[in-house]
Structures
1.
Amino acid sequence: MSQADQTVTVEHSVSDKADTLRTGTSLRARLFQYRYIYLMLLPGVLFLLVMNYLPMFGALIAFKEIDYALGIIGSPWVGLRNFEFLFATRDAWVAIRNTLSYNAVFIVTGPIVAVALSIMLNELRNKRGAKVYQTLLIMPHFISFVVVSYLVFAFLATSTGYMNTRILPMFGIERVRWYLEPARWPVILFLVNGWKSWGFGTVIYLASMAGFDPQLYEAATIDGASRWAQIWKITIPLLLPMIMLLFILSLGRIFNADFGLFFQVPRAAGPLIPTTQVLDTFVYRALISLGDIGMSSAAAFLQSVVGFVTILSVNLIVRRLKPEWSIF
Amino acid sequence: MATITEPTRSTATTRQRQPGKLRKNEISLTANIVLNVIFLIAVALILIPFFLLVTVSLTDNDTLVQEGYRFIPSLWSTEAYSFLFQSPRLVRDAYMVTIIVTVVGTFGHVLLGALVGYSLTKTKMPGHTFFTVFVFFTMLFNGGLVSTYIINTQFLGFRNAFRGLILPLMFNVWHVLILRTYFATAIPASIEESAKIDGANDLRIFFQIVVPLSKPVLATIGLFAALIYWNDWFQSLLYITEPRMYSLQFVMLQTLRQIEMMQRLLTMGAPGDVIDRLRDLPQESVRFAMVVVSIGPIIFAYPFFQRYFVKGVTIGALKG
């Protein structure tokens, strides 16, 4: 092993420690030395090939007219016809509009609330209290959206829900048929999404803060900086790389939405479709309920490709502006 | 993938903040009280829905239909739970399916992730960069639901089979990242080296040395995986049509859709015998009791695993 190689090994925290003992130099010898590692990689590689990479090529069915009699490979190519059908429907545009609007709101508000909560937790003087709050705040992250939909139903059920039987009468407001009125749902879904996900975001940022150098804060105190100034001048700048990482990753999912949130929580109610239909539920409904492979595969293809292109371009821009914030 | 393949940050140690020596570096007492009030409200908002869930499951079924869901019902009843514990066929099958899927899936998830995570720590291995990109690329691009669904049902036989509930959730890139980071930083190099000198091959080193030394991170990933499997209903929605193969979450999902129909039949009237049959079963409270029982294991294990959870997130956050 050359001197240069060893320097690299020392520099990287993820390094091949046991490698100093592998002495072969020719490629064949090195391949042989790592034979057991390749063996250990094999299950994962095969798994990803079948479960992840095969569907990537399968996504090309968006350009085919699938006829099961001819098989998937034998089915004829139809160019962009599936996409033409897709964009000719109003439903697709509604789904795209909803997906982008909800995501825009979630992507902006999510980090703001989570960073604010994590800084507040970090500043608490009663550290044990902070632990308890943190524990309870992430609890919703661990339950499924089916359970969440029951919790929401307990409040919003028309004749028995807590809103209609107790809260609204207190203010003298008429009953609301929640599951029939689409206009109410953007706010409901925003609140439910926040309830479920803000605590988790908080813990991520809090974990990140645990790694900050305390000397920075000590030096700031000596210089007479207030806690408030320290938050803006130390904590938030140090959090920015993490915020950017999660931001870029979430932009990569700009065309995706949480199926559970938009399908389970509104109980898949038909009347709510105008405000609860997102691309994921659109694809599911087109595929399972209508059996329309052409349209659903076109929409699914769009989701994958737009997400991929978005994340690549955002990352490229970020790398130009601030290389250390880019993710690759 | 610079930051992903070669995390070079050296802030590996988590240091506790020490109090400033010159003056107390803390927020004011008033600010502290205000923050505590905010968090108490936040915590209440999180817990209140759970309380409502529990009281509904403990309410007499007729009372539920008449006076609605209340925090303090006029008539309590444990009927729903005793009905559940007589375990009707559907509920018993659902529990079996969920337990089998959770146990087998968690084991596979951890094993697969650990094997890949460990292999990717071998930075000198020919093809290391290729394999790293091969694994992490799946985070950026996927084939989409339709193509996945067609391949899984047409070629892989996922319909109404356990593999349809287990395989789609068996690999998680974030978990591989956490495992790889742990193996690369927490296992002393000297131990692996001396095993090598003693003639152990990589397989043996992994299973007899690395795995026993990595129990904390394996437990963390195991808990994540168990939760993913326990809470999953989406795979059932895609691949399962036979009631025998319904998971717990899937049964709950389906029954929620029918609740309001039941209520309407009971209050607005239906043929007498239908009403009688409906009244035989404590329908609505049972559904809520099922939800309570489904989150029971999570709540009980919660104090234990939330510590691991925060630890796992910390590993990911610091070095991811």
Note: The domain at 81-325 of chain A is CATH 1.10.3720.10 (MetI-like fold).
2.
Amino acid sequence: MSTSAGNLTRVLMRRELKSYFATPVAYVFIVIFLVLAGAFTFYLGGFYQRGQADLLPFFNFHPWLYLFLIPAIAMRLWAEERKSGSIELLLTLPVTMWQAVLGKFLAAWAFVGIALALTFPIWITVNYLGDPDNGAILAGYFGSFLMAGAFLAVGSCLSASTRNQVVAFILTVVICFALLLAGWPLVLDMFRGFGFPQAVIDAIAGLSFITHFSAISKGVIDLRDLLYFVLMIGFWLYASAVVIDLKKAD
Amino acid sequence: MIETRKLCKHYGGLKAVDGISFKVEPGEVLGFLGPNGAGKSTTMKMIAGFLTPTSGTATVCGFDVQEHPIAAKRLMGYLPEGAPSYGEMSVAGFLEFIADVRGLAGEERRRRIDDAVGRLSLSGVMAQTIDTLSKGFRRRVGLAQAIVHDPKVLVLDEPTDGLDPNQKHEVRALIQAMSRDKTIIVSTHILEEVHAVCSRAIIIAGGKVLADDTPQGLEARSRYHQAVSLSTANPKDAQELLARISDVSAVEIDPQDGRVTAFPRKGKPIFDAVTAALRQANFQFSEIALEQGRLDEVFRQITQTERNAAMAKKKEAA
């Protein structure tokens, strides 16, 4: 009877991850992700035209790719449990709320990790064509994975707030869009135009996924950027647990 | 053991559960009866640790469900209303998942799963996904999930809902077989079930306990308890004859099948007097029976009195 806490989280995660592959959803998602990632890199990013052996055009589009694809993964996390009633089963098993939230989140994160890992041909391509800084590329993948986790954590919380997956999807897109835009020069200039002091503008920029991701994607791993994503994930997962606890009865 | 003390759950102004207290000992099967919306499921959800009570406590084998939820949940098997599960999983995969969460491993895990599968005759559907199963099978998967870790306490919300008569019979036999060393709560709105499996029954309505008694005790509250009924070709004559017996309070003729029922005065047995009177008059009848009492009538009487009282109160307030 002595199942350790980490073990239980792993059991929940494994079940969740398996359930992705039980339906075509997982395969459809991976194919769309790979096709879009390729299309963005080669057409919009001008991968060949730049004539540089790096993956910046690839990573630069990840925030926008995630904006629509990650909410599609996250929307079912809790909304489906609520709709089918299995949330009642899950939360009356001897697991803590934290284990349940973390187990489901880690499954979704691992799934996105699998999709991300399957973009490896682009890494092979760039190594074939030139002599890229593989350390920077590795950092880019790492940063992209971290950012995906932040998107997912936001989605987990909003999925917990409704039993309707479409509502969860739209809410997640809107909030993630706001978090992306916060670092966009256009938005920052607008706030500057309103006469906000630089400290406020920096704070707004500091909330943005893009500000923190762009540094990592160039190969610069700053502890503050890592901390930002870890805190972001922690905050939204904590919010998920609170929301589930409040709304599980509806 | 399960104990609740003044358990309450309020939704805004609505008192779904309003001060329910009871205690169930090992070996007992407690039947939870009540009209729809009486608060049965809400009470069970609080005992199972899914809902947080507004006030009051529920304890399972000495563990407060709110303060020591994991310890309490370990000892408990719970079948939620509607038997939800993960539809995309196979039956085998689902039961293995539950066994893993319950901390079963190795030989014991296999033995416990086999036992639950055998008890609920699921071996033929192990490879099927739960979504493709009939309602009856899904309910049995839910039951298997609840008993896989051989819990001390079982909380089953409508375990026989959606089953055919044979399956109902099997599930009732299963509950009885398990009742020897376990504490079991079963909610139902099928009154015959109370007789079949319960050693005690609680009737709740409007979130309150209205009666807490053995099935026999509840039946004894019925007007039909100890009444004598008979079928005859001339019910009118039978009515006249039986009405003359001193301990008979009333004689009624069922307008549908013409069956004659003689009701006793409170606590007076009339069977002997009735048979003697019939024999004396040499009265012809095809069949005669001593009534045990009718649970459905008691149920209606108890729950509707409550409703009428509540309505009267509302009127008064208005």
Note: The interface with chain A takes residues 11, 45, 48-52, 69-70, 73-74, 76, 78, 80-82, 84-89, 93, 97-98, 100-103, 129, 145 of chain B (CB under 8 Å).
3.
Amino acid sequence: MKKTFGGPAIVLDRSDINTDEIIPAKYLTEVTKEALKPYCLEDLKLEGFDANGEVLKKARVVVTRENFGCGSSREHAPWVFEVNDIHTVIAESYARIFRQNMFNCGMLAIELPKSDIDALMLEKDANGAIDIQVQLQEQKVVAKGNGQEMSFVFEISPFDKALVEAGGWVEYADARY
Amino acid sequence: MGRTTAEKIFAAHLRDEPFPGTKVLDLDRVLCHEITTPVAIADLEWRGKDRVYDNTKIKAVIDHVTPAKDSKTALQAKILRDWSRRHDIKDFFDVGRNGVCHALFPEKGYIRPGFTAIMGDSHTCTHGAFGAFAAGVGTTDLEVGILKGVCAFREPKTIRINLTGNLQPGVYAKDVILFVIGELGVNGATDRVLEFHGPVVEAMSMDARMTLCNMAIEAGGTCGICQPDMVTVDYLWPFIEDEFANKEAALEEYSQWCADADADYDKILEYDVTSLVPHVTFGYKPDCVKPASEMSETKIDQVYIGTCTNGRIEDLRQAAEVLQGRKIADSLRGIVSPATPKIFQEALSEGLIQIFMDAGFCVTNPTCGACLGMSNGVLAEGEACASTSNRNFNGRMGKGGTVHLMSPATAAATAITGVITDARSL
């Protein structure tokens, strides 16, 4: 199923956030995605972050730093975002498996350079909140804080774009192989 | 221009290139365990596509939590078990015959030079020790692998790592890979293959090569790859002797997967390991490493020897050599988990289990268990574990617990003293 992208963002200002922090291994005994919902980012080690807070509850986008999603291959990490309606992650870089898992689920793992992530985080600091719209065709991220609008162009491989448009890798592969 | 091992394997398995740079490969092996496969099975059923592309190429094992610890893990095992029976997957390993996937599948001879393999497990990179391309993937990739026998990759660049000199006694493959990860950093090899070369690798057993390749992912690497040679052939010989007239013929066949001398590398790194000392991790990332001797103030509550990194027979021998005739410190508990039933039996017949038990270790059945804080030795808040596993993330072995990664010899020495200890100082 095709996803919608964008909305209020939560900022996670740290590199190397791993999949154990996104969804601890003790919840890997669940056999449905929905069951993961209450445990999003439960073990994240980050000052000021509240896994039970309103900011995370309202978030539809995650903005973060380098090597996001490193560690385990568990697709439970993208799934816990998916069932919490977070379909977009914007980071400086990703671990390979997490990035592929996002696109395989028909979701977006957008890469922006450090200067753009800095600007997004500054805007968030100034306003306390930031709203992000994603224009996939134009490959553009538009961020609105307190009136000011910023826009950033991102690169996405044609394959990853095709996965998002198909709704995921199963749909794409089933139609093709 | 010559080609790397990964480039040769990609060329030989290319099914499709839907867009430049995206390669869809045919898979020789799709490996499954009970944590990441059940959701793929459920999705295939929901889609009305409960099929498998080739039940001889799919291998399955219950390994992460086994025997089941509660109703949820019992259900995961049952889903995998029922599915394996339904599709007549002969190579399914249930309780009693099961072991840690990345030790069990190589031991059965399932991975050969030049193969492609995926598994819903990040440490699938281990199998590159055989000169194969093996990558950890998520459940969706696994699902498509099960159904169609293909997987898509951005063709990775290769970092060549030349290991020269001689490892000193008491310094092992684990120390080498911890040191290399410290040099590369946790994302230094993202979208890269690590290709290991040099006399140090050539002198390593398959067990040691698997330890080396197992932790490629901790530097972000897609796969760790060793060059197939006579050590590889000797290991595989019981499984391939009907396919070749002699070992030399097998070696000749497998050598086609060795990198060309003029292959194009992203980077070439050379490390002389002659002066390398036993290394351990501190902090919460696997690239935070330092010599064990500099960590001797660190008190430990639990020692864990096992896992897909260091639960093989050589690892148990190295630990037992340190433990022989000694007792572990009263201040800690020791747990050893041989990675497969075969390894367990070898350890029994060699007297290693006796040494572990005499020293005061608890011996558990083969399982991933404590490595990821699921069972068989989970830490309490504030506790520290000296572990032969591969990840020291915050809370990895239990919420609020700390993990220090090290070799089996260092872990054994630490068990004796109660603080992190270089085994050579005992």
Note: DSSP finds 15 helices and 19 strands in chain B.
4.
Amino acid sequence: MDLSAINPLVLIASLMVSATPILLAAIGELVVEKSGVLNLGVEGMMIVGAICGFATAVETGSPLLGFIAAAAGSALLSLIFAVLTQFLLANQVATGLALTLFGLGFSAMLGQGYVGLKPPSTPTLHIPVLSDLPVVGTMLFSHDLMVYVSLALVAAVWATLKYTRVGLILRAVGENHDAAHALGYKVIRIRILAIMFGGACAGLGGAYLSLVRVPQWTEGMTAGAGWIALAIVVFGSWKPWRVLLGAYLFGGISVLQLNLQAAGLKVPVQYLSMSPYLITILVLVIMSANRSRAALSAPASLGRSFHASH
Amino acid sequence: MTGTEKVLLTVEGLTKAYPGVVANSNVSFRIMEGEVHSLLGENGAGKSTLVKMIYGLVRPDTGRMTLRGQVYEPSAPKAARAAGVAMVFQHFSLFEALNVAENVALGMENPPKQSELSQRIRQVSEAYGLPLDPARLVGDLSAGERQRVEIIRCLLQDPKLLIMDEPTSVLTPQEVEILFKTLRQLSAEGTAILYISHKLEEIRALCDEATVLRRGKVVDTCQPREKSARELAEMMVGETLTPPERSGKAPGPVALDVSGLSARSPNPFGTALQNIHLTVQRGEILGIAGVAGNGQDELLLALSGEIRTAKDAVKIDGKGVGDLGPNERRAVGLVSAPEERLGHAAAPDMSLTENALLSGAVRKELTSRGFIDWAKTRTFAAGIVKEFDVRTPGIGTAARALSGGNLQKFVIGRELSQDPSVIVVNQPTWGVDAAAAASIRQALIDRASGGAAVVVISQDLDELLEIADRFAALNGGRLSAPRPTQGLTVDEIGLMMGGAHGMEVAHVHP
């Protein structure tokens, strides 16, 4: 085994790329769940975003337009979920699962003509001074725009939830929708907006997979990324920075285990492949082991349908 | 009230109908500035719908309102708040995971910055003798303190009319006294208060005027100070009430023996039970009082078997059952009815027959070799409906379709019909109209006279004083030593319930 083949600089740089799709989907789902809605359709929204972004980028030649189309397409898909669960009071778990199945099938249909094509490459940003720094420059400051967008989103979601009135109302709706309604807040409207935000984020995450990470289109290419994003939200106790930690941990171990496989580590491949899932969840579970505090940050109305009785 | 009073709010001919029920029919009354006006009526009389219309949560079908001479048609609570109408809700409209200042901010239109808001909360809370720390999580506050949050949220908006929907149902007598001082101070400053309650003594102590509602209509108005509580009750119910009869029999041997019972709550904001001791003899009713959230739910769960404990912490007829589950305890002779009717005592979408089976299967032998004996189950369910006067189209009706009072009669009846030796009930008459409540209380007394040991957990002190032989109070998960009910004063009971829960007594108008 030759560990010297693993270059820590490249490892960290590729960790960020590897974690970004999950991070985008997870931060969107965090907002959805904070509003009290459990949308299990993340996987389906991601893959629809992946094909929408891929197709648009291939047709127009612009990755940026691809990302915009991905966000719009997945937000539109999430609107189906929103109408079913918020107006027709369908069960959120069942509807979310159905959305995933629908998204997987629908994306396969949309993507039939795009298998094997190569998308236009997404340029990496050149940030003056920072990108030219030795070591840190290649590690942190030579990525494409979306990596920084995802980090900015985490910071924005954290600040919005913590410091702004919009964030307070969102948390209030997720905490006790009856009380929020009694105070005159539009529970359903707020939740629909949150669901669409979550959809748009998942779409961006999917498009990042098909346009940057892989980059090509294959059926079912999200391969469970949406599910790990859901798990990271829960085990990260609905806290934005923990979600970032979880996503980067998962991305990091995924990249590391590939490198270890390549270096010929004498451990069965299956164990290495499952290690990102196991370690990420283990770490987050230990961090949220304090039951009472974890329970506090869980939105109390999560997954419950709201219907104004009077 | 002074001689220079002006009309603040008039309500004329307000009507609101829901499918199948007219909640309010042609309701008219008026409130003067600075007046404490009471809306009196039983559950389902239409009080809540009426105040929701005044607060803009519900739109009336017909009728009009004026506020200080202007036409008043609030389309949303926002508009009502802007017009100077504020409301404290019956079930607190608070967010447990948010702190006091955040909760207050959510109830305001244009809240100032958090630091400034905290400052104002401190000022107002001190001016009205309601000390409160803006940074504390609401989930950690006592019921009395939570109500302060709601009241301060209203006061910060300088309301002209403060609506209070059943504000004292979760308070100890001492906490009620503090609240009343605040309300009297507000009234003296010119704020009118619309006070909804079915606690008649409180209305007599606090209110200037009362409007009595029955089945959605105004049936009477009066000055409550000039009426006795009994007269008010009869105006409310529209019939004469007979208090339950007690038998004078001496109690028998101990049937339920709880010693050193401690248990953690399954709910993150719940209260752990700490070292509870009690014994109940056959033929005796033990009343357990306490403000909501002091361990009542947990005590019921620990007695019914939903929380398991050490084997000898709970004994029935001398046999340790602490480690047994609910059905095994039923087999030994303990039945129980929790507070929450829909979803805990009864499965909402299942029929009455099925609900009868769920609890009665063990003692009434409604199953054999894994198969359900439907004929026997239907007979059992029909018997409950008949004996306890449950108003339902039939035993095939879903539990959800019954009114609260009728479902409660069914749930209590189902447990009492199983020939139990120990009965544990939590809030047996909560949200039940006076006539149904009286019949449930009588049934509990009858079962006790028939030789059962009965534990009644309730927040209704009058109820406990009426039916219990001995009385104890839960406070912070600890149970006070039981005392005979006879000769207990309300003050003593209040102290057993924890007094003012460490809240400072108001220091207004010394």
Note: Residues 3-297 of chain A form a domain with the ABC transporter involved in vitamin B12 uptake, BtuC fold (CATH 1.10.3470).
